[in-house]
Q: What sequence folds into this?
């Protein structure tokens, strides 16, 4: 669960960086 959450956060950060 922790790994999955960390992965989700990482993906979200990448998406945000791509948008901005």
A:
């Amino acid at each position: 669960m922790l790994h999955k959450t960390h992965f989700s956060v990482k993906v979200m950060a990448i998406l945000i960086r791509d948008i901005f």
Q: What stands out?
A: The mean pLDDT is 85. DSSP finds one helix and no strands in the chain. The longest helix spans residues 2-19.
